Each structure stands twice: as structure tokens, then as C-alpha cells.
């Protein structure tokens, strides 16, 4: 029966591939040529070295239609630093080597080399791309992907204009400086960001007392850091595609005087609901519709704030400019939306629960799962180093990428001990508000090997950090798949009781989802995409400190790997035959 | 006759290898394990991220005896940055893949990987090691190599104690920031260094007006930047092995009240001469003898200053501590040696001319050469980018290292057009003091292919830069060889007249030599070391901007290349069979 299931799964996979090829017969190839390098920029008025793509950060927005093939030739001109770019939300069906996850799906791209990423965008929606190598994303290497429905088809909602906005938090220290602190004994935390950026523009106060910043270093009149301004015409409907690629911060997003109707999340249509404040976590995307139906004789504030942390970062501020008002005309100061209470997680949990699939666009989840993996995230100290762990194992990337190691059976390149399926309930009381002081975590690079075609439940379990009475929000991102979001809960997940409350009727599918403080989140996915896939906290420093796991499924079905993904660890001298 | 000469050369080569193996029968293996990472340090009181080896900068001094095998296992823990380490002055006979020149002899070492450098130190003397990748050396990745004569043998001079000192200049900007400026349009020059370091210790004035530095960033009482102190006992002779690894600066070195007798240069014995001021250029090493015969009741200043540039950098200061005076007891301020006049090059040229081989230790140079390559260095602009060129070609490294490209006949990986043997005398008047405004330089990566065993003369020709009435000192370093220094001259080298004045009697052999402003330097070397070898200006930014050339000789005699040097460019998937 199991063997038959497996055969059926393989059949389904190839049938899907076939249908897919048929569907793409009219699809286009979208070819981009990017040069990635370091340049001095002042995104928030403070001049620092950032990583640009073709001279900008954020990089160019990739615009394509469903089933198009996107080809991006990335030239690394970073001098002495490697890179890898992940196409966040793109499942890479049939192209697992193009996922851009350094250490998992490829060796990094060396300076001087040009790497070809080639993949099909098989679903319409709002996606992101960003560096997936150390904490390189924080240097500014990121952008948007906008996939529209094929010509002749239409979305299940109407709008006149389409705009992309990426939210980000911004640090003045380099990822090198931050990493040195995170890896030091004693540990030095990265701290709160200096500013919030709305599509690459923010504002740091150059007159901050005690800093003595020269105008050459920080200049609030620099046009590079003029506020983000979106010009709109009155009486229209705008689709705003909002993504977050913060290094750390959970954010609120508000537009003075304008309601937002949430219609899409991570590439899936949402049963529409209206908010004044949108909460968004790193790695998430939302489409909201706004109607420019307010008093057209003035402009309106756009504001984003840190939530979930006791913020020291000022709001990120932009302007919704009603044409023909002058774009530099400030809205009334009194109308600046006030920030949500930072530690009131109720509205954030409510939003999480409100996101359900749009009627008529529900992907039915399997009724049950073949395997349940409970992942408790904890803060730990290992040999005096501060780490994050999952079920008491803190993740380290091996030096040979898993995709190559598994496909070519270099099984000595990583631990063959699978990570735990659950946490030790005798040792961890996730309902405790006391400091988690477990010192016995270990470092590991083992992999969860999933039966191809099986259904897997992931239960994200949160608890207290190493600070008493503190639990953090973690946005978890799954590569290569969308998952169904079956439910959220408070306290300890009960494997007997809680699954009975799962939403199997209209769960949204997403690729990134928060686990709220002291809570749990239940996800389900089909292990039906041959490859090796990361699942990790999207907070840059948390991932750096070990907060992630790896799944393998159907490795034997993966095609020939392209030579370009090799070159590191034990892949030197390994002949790879595939094409990107 | 030529064929016979070639056969004899090959015979000599293998005989040498054989003798060499016999000689090394008693030699030891010196095994080092290094971890290279970023850490915060305050070498000159200003706290910044530096690259350390096993926690320090400079790194450990390698101490070995002639004919020992040195094995250094280098683990790259730099996160997202590669590395390569060059063993400066070690000829790498039989191990050209261990020269550590990124892009020439190896691909860079990736983060997470451990690379084994294994080579024989076949001559006693004072050598250096340092990063040879982009401008990474400036981050602090460098150290000394001290090779003593075999047990039972003695040097041709006597001394009681042996000490190593590396001089360096120090910038507060990172190499990434500097490189971004050098590569920008318009060009941003790196400027003068913030301080000079004596063996990793310097002093930046933390109260410099206008900087408003917090004590956490800059603290003049930090013990990390206490002055370099060398404790000596009175009445003894000390051998000081002084090396310079400055990014930019030519330096003077003085010890208050103590003459220095120069006895070694770049691993060769010098006919001794006495100086009060030693001039030293980046990449050079000298051994000097000092006698601690001064008033033993006080300490003495050690001072180093920038020469050849209109310095803004304060002197680097250390203390020669006569035991039992307290090491922190300052010498009298009035005794601080005054800096030489920066633009008086007469004493520097005199020192260059004074360096001759010690009688009884002269290596006779060939009486004539088979080929003469004249290399004029010029500043240029190419497409609006500021560059340095050699005979009007500005050097760029290819993406596939030459050693692999040549050995495996991947001849499409670099230009097959050989660089020019001479400069265009009709176009360049090297005696002119006018701005060099030649806009027609090109970028290239062609190679000088040398007949194995042939004798090659290199004539370094200097001229005016792009600033009127300005010519700079460039220290040129040859990998894989020592060269004979046949002569120095003013103005334009005359190929008919000047060779008649060559010193063929007792020329010193060196690996690094300056070409003085508006002058020329004549070198001769035997192309008898199978491999591919860089010859370049040792100023970090000049090399970055194209001031170098590459020589190939006897590539067909190079043994199997180790797999570890591959992984970049077209070496991906190339099976390399050798061992380090």
C-alpha cells in the first residue's frame, strides 16, 4: 500500500511536470542581467556601504506572468565576498538547484563569477528575492517579484493600479560587525535597528545627540533619503503589494485615513477583510486594496512601526500623494497614525486567525498527516556561545551543500542522525515564564528525510527565552512549498486536543507564518517537491544563531545538478552535468 | 643549441629537486593550525573589525629551520568572505599551488573550508605572510616567517638575540569601503593612513577635534594600544628582523641613540653597512644588528615615519626598554628621533644603492639575459575609472586561476595576447614633469610566457603621475623567485648605455625592490621555477587598480594540482588529482 502510494506520488509528479510543460507553451522568458556590488548609499540619510543590484537597493522588481521562465544572470562584483540569492515564495518545481540557499542548494557564487538562476514562476502573486548567505540580506541585497495572471485571465478582485512596497529595518553596523558580536563570547546582541525603510527610504536623525555626525556621513537634506512617496490619482483602487524583509522587526503598516482590504497573502487569495493596521513579519507578503476616496486636496501619511519589541526605532514614514498636490507637501502632523501598543499581541493574533483562503480559491488540505514534527524553539548557551535551537539542536550549515551531498551520496558531509521529531516535555515547560536555562543543547546538521508525497504536519511551539517573562515572535519560512495554516493556539500544543480544532475548511496557504509569543502554530504540507529545503526563522540573526532545520524529499528524482552550484567543500572536482 | 640549453635546464631542475630531497632528509615538519576570523580589536586605540589568526593580528610568527616543511591548515571563519594567504619570499619550488595568490595560483578559500598550505622553506632568512586577495591584507591578516640556518651551521654574523618586527600603516575604513571608492566614478582615493603600527600597535589620537569619538570607539588608555615595547638587556647584540607590510606608505625606521648595521635583505646576506635611519618599502624585509651599548639607566624611542608622501600620519612610536628600567617609563621626549624630510629621496636612493651581497655569499648573476622586458608604470583613466597600468595595460585577474588555466589548457580563460615588452617611447616622455594624460590604456589579463631556464631582465621605469610634478615610489614584488638588483638610475633607462653600468660583481638578490620617483631599476632573474608567478606593485591600492603582470615558466613541469585550489571560474567540475 505504501509502495503503491509512492508509485502514485511519482506518477502524479511526472504528470504535473507534463501538464506544466503544456501550460507553459505560451509562456515567455524574462531575462535579467544583474551586477551586484558594494556602493555608498544613504537610504536613511546615514551614508554607508550597501550592496546594490544594478546600482540600486532595493534591486529591480521582477515582473512576469504566471508560467513565465525567469532567467537572472547575477554577476558577483563584491570583491572578496560571495553571494547567493533566494527567490522567496517560488517553489522551484523541477529546479531545486535554483533556490539560492547557500549551503543547502548551492555553493556560494564567487566574486568575478556570473551565476544563472533559471526558474518558472508557476503561480501568480507577490514574492520576494533576497540574499541567503550569512546575514548578507541586511546589506541591501533584496527586491520584489510580481507575477501576474496570464493574459486573458483575471484576478478575483478589481483594481486600477498595482504597486510594490518592501518594508525593511536598517542597521548602520555591517553584517560583519553584527556577526562578530553574535559569535563572540560574551555575546553582543545586534540591538534595535536605527531606522525603518519604506521601499529603501528612511530617516535617521543626523543630529542625534552624542553622535557628532558630520554632514558627509549623515545629512537629512540628502535627496536619497527623501521620504518614500506614492503618487495616486483620486477615485481609484490601488493594489499595494507589501512585503517585509526586516532583519529583526515585526512591523505595523498604516495609511492615514485609508482602510486596507487584505486580498492576497504569500501568493494566495485571501477571503477579504478590512484593516486599519496591517501587521507583517519578515518574509511575508500581502496585497491590500486601497480606495483613493479621501479628501483629494491634501496628502496622507504612510507609517510603519516596530511591534512585538520595546521599540527604540522611530517610525518609518512615507507619503501617499494625491495628485495634483505637490509630492513634497507634508500631510498635517496631527494625522500621523499613532503606533500600536508594542506588546499588545491580541490584534496580531487576530489578524493571523483572520487570514483564510478566498472562497472559490481554497486548496483542500489533506484530511490527515503521515508525520507530525513538533519544533520547539529555544534560546540556549552552548560552550558559552549564545544560540537558538530547535528541539535542543542548534543548526549549523555543512560545508558541502545538502542538495549535492544527498544527490551524490556524500553522506559523510553531514550528520546522519535525524533531528528530533519532538522536544523533551519532561525538560521543557513551555508555559513557564522563567528563564530558559537549559545548557545542554547541541549543534547539529542532520536532516529530516521525508517520504516523497507524504503529508507532514509542523507544529511550531514557542516558549520563554533566556530573559524571564519574555517570549518572541518568530516568522518561519519554508522553502520549496506552500503550507496550509491549520491553526494558532496559546500555551502548549496538545497533540490530542488541538488537532480537533484545525481549520480544514478554508485554511490559507502561505510560505511564511509567525509563531506568536508563548503560542503555537500548526502547519501542514505535502512533501511533493523533489529537493532539499530549508525551514527557518526569517529573522536574520536568529537563523545565523541556529534557528532552522532542513527537509529532504524525493532526492532520487532530482535531475542532473548544474556545475555552477558546486565549487565548495567536497564538491571540488565533482563533475556536475546539468544545466541551469 | 637552444634545444640543448633547454635540455640542460630541465636536467638542472631535476638534479636540483633530487639534491633538495637529499638535503631535506633531516628536516622537520612544522605544523600550524590557524583559524581566521573577524574580531573587534583596537590596534591604534580605535576599535574596529580586524581579521585575526588564532585571535591575534599580526598572526603567529612561523619559526622554522632551512629545509623544513611548513604545513599551515587555515580554516576560513570569515563568514561570507573568502581568503588566500601568500608566503612572501618563499619561492615555492615544487609547490607553485601553495603560493597563495588568488586568481593566479589558486581559487580563494571559501568560508567554512580549511585549506592546507604546504611548502619547504629552502633558504634561511626573514620572510612574511599576508592575505593576497583583494585588499584583504589591510584588515590585519599578516605575520612573519623566520627561517634559521640548520642546527650546526652558523650565520656570517654574530648576535645574542633574535626579534621580529612588522611595520604597517593602518586605516579605519574597511577594505570594502576603500575598494568602493577606488572603483567609483569619480574615483575616491583612500587617503593617508590614520596611524602607523609597530608590530600591531599604534596610536590614533582619540581626542582628534571634530570626530567626537566615544570611549567605546576610541580609548587611548586601552592596553591593546599601549606602545610596542622591546625589552633588551644591556651589552648585547640583537638581530632585529624588520618587515614592512604597509598598504601604501614607504617608511623610515629609527632607534634613538642606536646605529643599525644592515646584514640581511629579503633572505640574502648584505655586505654590512651602518645606518641611523633605515628606509623600508612594503614587502621588504631587513635584518639589522643593534648593540645595546647605550646608557642603561633609561629607555629609548623607536620611531617610524611616512616618507615619500607629504605625510599627515603621525609617527609610529615604540620603546626600546633597557632592562631593568620599567617598560612603561617614557624616554625623554626630546630624544624622539625627528622624521626625515619627506620628499628628500637622496638618502633613500643611496640606501638602495648601498645594498650589495656580502662577500663570500654572492650568487653570481648570468652575464647577459635572453630577454629584456621594460615595464613603464603609469596612472591612467579608462572609461572614466582611475587605474594604474604597465606599458599601457591595466591588469585584471581572470576568474579562473592562471596556474589551473595554463596547466589544463583552458586557454580561453584569459587573453592569449602577450602584454607589451616595452612602452611606446613616442607616446610617453618619462622625463616630463607634466600630468600623464594618456587616455588610451586598456585592461588586460595576458601573460608573459617565459622560456624555462632563460634569463630575463626587468627594467622598471617610472614617470609622472596624473598630478603635475609628481612621481611615486613603487615597491615591486616578484613571486617564486629572487632577482638580482643590477642597478638604479635617474630619468629614462637607456637600453644601450645603462646596462654597461650594471653591477655584475656583487648584486644583492631580493624579492621586492623600489623604483624611485622619475627613476628606473634594473633586475635580472632566472625563469627556472615551474609555475605561474605574479610581479606587482606591493601597494595594496595600486595592485587593486591594475599595477601588475604575470609570468609563466615551465608549466609543463608542474606536478598534479591539488583539488583544493579549484572551485572557482571554469575549474568547477575539473578533477584535480594532486596533494598539497
From TrEMBL, chains A, B:
Domain of life: Eukaryota
Catalytic activity reported: 4 L-ascorbate + O2 = 4 monodehydro-L-ascorbate radical + 2 H2O
Cofactor: Cu cation
Subcellular compartments: Secreted
E.C. code: 1.10.3.3
Keywords (A to Z) from UniProt: Copper, Disulfide bond, Glycoprotein, Metal-binding, Oxidoreductase, Repeat, Secreted, Signal
Endpoints of the signal sequence: 1-27
Protein's name in the database: L-ascorbate oxidase
Enzyme class, spelled out: oxidoreductase
PROSITE patterns: MULTICOPPER_OXIDASE1 (PS00079), MULTICOPPER_OXIDASE2 (PS00080)
Family as reported in the entry's similarity comment: Belongs to the multicopper oxidase family.
Any one GO cellular component localisation term in the record: extracellular region
Chief localization: secreted
InterPro entries with a match to the protein in the record: Cu-oxidase-like_N, Cu-oxidase_2nd, Cu-oxidase_C, Cu-oxidase_fam, Cu_oxidase_CS, Cu_oxidase_Cu_BS, Cupredoxin, CuRO_3_AAO
Organism: Linum tenue
Amino acid at each position: 500500500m505504501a509502495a503503491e502510494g509512492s508509485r502514485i506520488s511519482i506518477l502524479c509528479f511526472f504528470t504535473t511536470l507534463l501538464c506544466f510543460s503544456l501550460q507553459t507553451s505560451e509562456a515567455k522568458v524574462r531575462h535579467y542581467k544583474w551586477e551586484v556590488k558594494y556602493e555608498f548609499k544613504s537610504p536613511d540619510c546615514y551614508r554607508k556601504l550597501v550592496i546594490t543590484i544594478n546600482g540600486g537597493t532595493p534591486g529591480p522588481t521582477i515582473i512576469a506572468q504566471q508560467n513565465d521562465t525567469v532567467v537572472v544572470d547575477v554577476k558577483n562584483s563584491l570583491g572578496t565576498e560571495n553571494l547567493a540569492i533566494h527567490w522567496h515564495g517560488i517553489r522551484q518545481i523541477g529546479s531545486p538547484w535554483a533556490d539560492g540557499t547557500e549551503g543547502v542548494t548551492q555553493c556560494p557564487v564567487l566574486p568575478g563569477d556570473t551565476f544563472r538562476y533559471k526558474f518558472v514562476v508557476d503561480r501568480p502573486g507577490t514574492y520576494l528575492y533576497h540574499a541567503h548567505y550569512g546575514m548578507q540580506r541586511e546589506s541591501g541585497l533584496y527586491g520584489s517579484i510580481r507575477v501576474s495572471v496570464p493574459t486573458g485571465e483575471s484576478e478575483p478582485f478589481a483594481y486600477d493600479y498595482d504597486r510594490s512596497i518592501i518594508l525593511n529595518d536598517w542597521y548602520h553596523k555591517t553584517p560583519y560587525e553584527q556577526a562578530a558580536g553574535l559569535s563572540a563570547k560574551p555575546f553582543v546582541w545586534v540591538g534595535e535597528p536605527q531606522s525603518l525603510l519604506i521601499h529603501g527610504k528612511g530617516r535617521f536623525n543626523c543630529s542625534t545627540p552624542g553622535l557628532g555626525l558630520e554632514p558627509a556621513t549623515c545629512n537629512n537634506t540628502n535627496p536619497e533619503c527623501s521620504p518614500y512617496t506614492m503618487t495616486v490619482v483620486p477615485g481609484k483602487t490601488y493594489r499595494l503589494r507589501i512585503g517585509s524583509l526586516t532583519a529583526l522587526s515585526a512591523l505595523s503598516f498604516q495609511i492615514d485615513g485609508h482602510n486596507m482590504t487584505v486580498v492576497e497573502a504569500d501568493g494566495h487569495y485571501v477571503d477579504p477583510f478590512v484593516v486599519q493596521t496591517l501587521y507583517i513579519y519578515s518574509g511575508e507578503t500581502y496585497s491590500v486594496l486601497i480606495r483613493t476616496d479621501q479628501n483629494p486636496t491634501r496628502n496622507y501619511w504612510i507609517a510603519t512601526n516596530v511591534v512585538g519589541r520595546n521599540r527604540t526605532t522611530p517610525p518609518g514614514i512615507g507619503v501617499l500623494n494625491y495628485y495634483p498636490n505637490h509630492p513634497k507637501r507634508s500631510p498635517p502632523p496631527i494625522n500621523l497614525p499613532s503606533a500600536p501598543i508594542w506588546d499588545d499581541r491580541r490584534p496580531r493574533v487576530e489578524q493571523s486567525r483572520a487570514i483564510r483562503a478566498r472562497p472559490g480559491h481554497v486548496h483542500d488540505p489533506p484530511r490527515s498527516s503521515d508525520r507530525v514534527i513538533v519544533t520547539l524553539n529555544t534560546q540556549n548557551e552552548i560552550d558559552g556561545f549564545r544560540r537558538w535551537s530547535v528541539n535542543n539542536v542548534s543548526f549549523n550549515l555543512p560545508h558541502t551543500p545538502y542538495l549535492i551531498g544527498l544527490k551524490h551520496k556524500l553522506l559523510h558531509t553531514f550528520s546522519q542522525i535525524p533531528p528530533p521529531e519532538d522536544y523533551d516535555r519532561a525538560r521543557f515547560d513551555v508555559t513557564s515564564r522563567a528563564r530558559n536555562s537549559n545548557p545542554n543543547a547541541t549543534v547539529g546538521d542532520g536532516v529530516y528525510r521525508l517520504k516523497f508525497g507524504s503529508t507532514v504536519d509542523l507544529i511550531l511551539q514557542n516558549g520563554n527565552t533566556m530573559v524571564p517573562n519574555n517570549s518572541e515572535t518568530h516568522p518561519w519560512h519554508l522553502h520549496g512549498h506552500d503550507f496550509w495554516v491549520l491553526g494558532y493556539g496559546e500555551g502548549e500544543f496538545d497533540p490530542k486536543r488541538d488537532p480537533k480544532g484545525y481549520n480544514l475548511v478554508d485554511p490559507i496557504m502561505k510560505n511564511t507564518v509567525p509563531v506568536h509569543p508563548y503560542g503555537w502554530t500548526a502547519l501542514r504540507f505535502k512533501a511533493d517537491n523533489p529537493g532539499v529545503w530549508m525551514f527557518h526563522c526569517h529573522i536574520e540573526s536568529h537563523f545565523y544563531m541556529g534557528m532552522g532545520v532542513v527537509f529532504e524529499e524525493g532526492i532520487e528524482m532530482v535531475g542532473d545538478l548544474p556545475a555552477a552550484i558546486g565549487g565548495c567543500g567536497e564538491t571540488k572536482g565533482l563533475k556536475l552535468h546539468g544545466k541551469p
